[in-house]
Amino acid sequence: MLAVTSRPNFAAFVALALVGLVVAVSNAKYESLREPFVFTDLSLFSQLFSHPRLYLPFLSIGKVVAIVVGVMLVIGGFAAEPAVARSSTWLLLLLLVVLFIAVRMLAAGLPLSLDPCVDQARHGFFAVFVAYLMNGLRSATFAILQRAMVASPFGAGRPQRRTDVIVIQSESFFDIRRVCDAVDSSGFVQLDRARREAVHYGELTVPAWGANTMRTEFAVLAGIPSAALGYAQFYPYAFVRRACISLARWFARAGYATLAIHPYYADFFGRNRVFPLLGFERFLDIGHFKDAARAGPYVADAAVAEAVISTLNAQGDRPRFVFAMTMENHGPLHLEQVLPGESSSRHTLGEDASWRDLTAYLRHIENADAMIGRLLDHLRASDRETVVCFYGDHVPALPHVFQKLGVIPQHSDYFIWRNYGADTPECRNLVAEELGSVLLHVVQDDGNRAEEPCASEKAT
Predict the structure, then answer these.
(1) Separation CA 205–CA 215 (nearest Å)
(2) Domain made up of 147-444: CATH architecture
(3) Residue pLDDT, tens place only, 74-117
(4) What residues of the chain score a pLDDT lower than 50?
(5) CATH 3.40.720.10 in the chain, residues?
(6) What is the dihedral of CA 441, 447, 448, 453, to 10 degrees?
(7) In 3D, which of 452, 453, 455 has the Cα closest to residue 417?
(8) Measuring CA to CA, which residue among 331, 336, 333, 324 is closest to residue 372?
(9) Domain Sulfatase N-terminal, which positions (predicted)?
(10) What is the per-residue pLDDT across 138-147, written as a single tens digit (0 to 9) for each?
(11) Residue 351 in contact with residue 340, Cβ under 8 Å?
(12) How far is CA 33 from the centre of its chain?
């Protein structure tokens, strides 16, 4: 900064201001998502402007005011301080190079666990942030990811059956009744029925809390534990640069039509670039849902269910693999309106303002539950054999609600269901990277039957 502006006081102040800005953002992120600011968050900075509703509301008024005042002071400082002679510019550039090399070497030697909370408690925020940045942007990070992908369980084999397969990644979905018995079960009727008919169901350990959907998404599609990805675990899609093994590619090898559905902008998290590399032939983004119903600010789960059903009903002999992600329950939930009396039909905690976010969350959970019912009812009446895997990407970003309840839930929920065969449901807790392999086992299984039944066995 000094080499560019020739203003030493201004350069020093900007350096301190940048550290302060990152610390403020990190604190805001930790308050909402229980994770500090990490180096890959820098690559998402542009989304702050293209999708401000997803980020800015998590900054408190005090933090926003402090940032605005800081920017004004920076501008004022630049205007007030005269530039000094540039005779030492080359010396400053040389010093910068030396410092860069020294920092890079120190970062490489710093003992790190790649758990940001643990590392920052040991070494401090700024040291760990810089070390992650220096180490994470090395070419070795890309190489580690590529080696990990080679070990994916989806690298061999192909389906013996031609069953349609639907995977639903439900935004912020988990069975909150596990941690709060005040929640009414009426919003989980279809989930409970699906579990009673499922092959497998249970809790799902996911590598995300309150956000960072793509971490869970990648774990399911790649079948690789986050720890094996090194620094790429914080934003795996940023480091995928070539075609790789995945759950979608496993089906594609057998001639399946592979489709991804996400009712939001295709470039969000770089999905439009990454999904073809993961083996998806088509990707339906928000452009496909321009006339679809909304539930709050986002496309309703019901519209996603109809898109999946339309795909299944489309002409063609190829079996389908559909990976659909919902968006309705994304939040920020504290921006949504909750009317008087809404809470009482969903929980018994009262109408106090501190429970409004929970009420808004449960309102969307009801819609996710209805989506389960709509899809499974359609498949119960269908003569196409279909397997459905439904799971939540992470628990919701409701830190204040969970604090009041005295809990910190970590796990989402899943079930694997099919419209053929006779199954005894098995409660089996999984980690996200195991889900795809368990799904493939169900797809390959004959459904415990002696003869081919019609797919309406589970219709009632």
Answers:
(1) 12
(2) 3-Layer(aba) Sandwich (3.40)
(3) 677 666 767 666 656 677 788 889 999 999 999 999 999 999 99
(4) 450-456
(5) 147-444
(6) -160
(7) 455
(8) 324
(9) 165-422
(10) 999 999 999 9
(11) yes
(12) 12
